[in-house]
Design goal:
Blueprint lengths: L1 H26 L2 H5 L22 H13 L1 H4 L18 H10 L14 H12 L4
Length: 132
């Protein structure tokens, strides 16, 4: 009887641990863990067409932040997946900042606790490089 109880407790512990890990992965970007590691400086082919100019400064940092935080919904190329296509946005920088900070109820989470103002400015700089 004790052996059965110990096995049940062990199974319950494993289930609780697995559930916790899955919750953390889902919350903090499971998609980023699935990305294939690339050599330093390499650009993923699916992100930018060959004719796109090289990104510098804030836009380059913004692209990195985009891939880590946004690509799982908007796609690596920002053409949309679960979230909308972000090419050729017709929103002010202030509106983009507001959306990233507050999110959109039922559609997009708030990133206020994860991204600071300079991160959001860098993301906005990157989004401005995306043309239709």
């Amino acid at each position: 009887m004790n052996v059965t109880r110990n096995i049940s407790q062990t199974q319950a512990s494993i289930i609780a641990f697995t559930t916790s890990v899955l919750t953390l992965l889902t919350t903090f970007g499971f998609a980023s863990l699935l990305r294939v590691a690339q050599p330093a400086g390499a650009r993923p082919a699916s992100v930018a067409p060959a004719h796109e100019v090289a990104l510098t400064g804030d836009a380059q940092q913004g692209r990195h932040l985009f891939l880590m935080n946004c690509a799982h919904c908007h796609g690596d190329d920002a053409r949309g997946d679960e979230g909308p296509d972000l090419h050729g946005l017709r929103k002010t920088d202030q509106r983009i900042h507001q959306i990233i900070t507050a999110g959109i109820k039922g559609e997009m989470p708030s990133f206020a606790k994860k991204l600071n103002d300079s991160d959001i400015q860098a993301l906005t700089s990157y989004l401005r490089t995306l043309h239709s």
